[in-house]
Amino acid sequence: QVTEKIKDDEKLRFDYWLIKGRAYMGLGQYEKAISSYLAGNAIYDSDTNLLNGLGFCFLKSEKKEEARRALEASLRLNPDQPETRKLLEEAKK
Questions:
Q1: How far is the CA of 5 from the CAs of 1, 13, 15, 45, 88, in angstroms?
Q2: How far apart are alpha carbons 70 and 81 in whole angstroms?
Q3: How far is 15 from 77, CA to CA, in rounded Å?
Q4: pTM, full prediction
């Protein structure tokens, strides 16, 4: 796979985990996606795409408190995200 080729490149490691998280999320494998997103977040914790994906996967995994924290972090970075606000409201229920 193409993504596996970039795994060990220091400059691309964040992108590797982001892509891997999105792929697992798309397959509905939310726990694997969460693991990948958390690995990427450990490298760079200010990416709204990653935080939104992480929040979505936490929500799908019934981890509402974790979802809320990830989505709130994303909104602090960029408050102009209506879809993220909707997800956050769902996480608060």
A1: 7, 10, 12, 23, 35
A2: 13
A3: 19
A4: 0.90
AA identity, residue 34 = I
* CA 54 centroid distance within chain: 3
Longest dimension (CA), the chain: 41
For residue range 6-38, what is the model confidence (pLDDT) as tens digits?
666 678 899 999 999 999 999 999 999 999 999
Q: Record the tokens describing residue 66, joined without a space.
A: 């974790």
Closest Cα partner for 36 from 48, 52, 49, 25? 25
DSSP label at 79? S
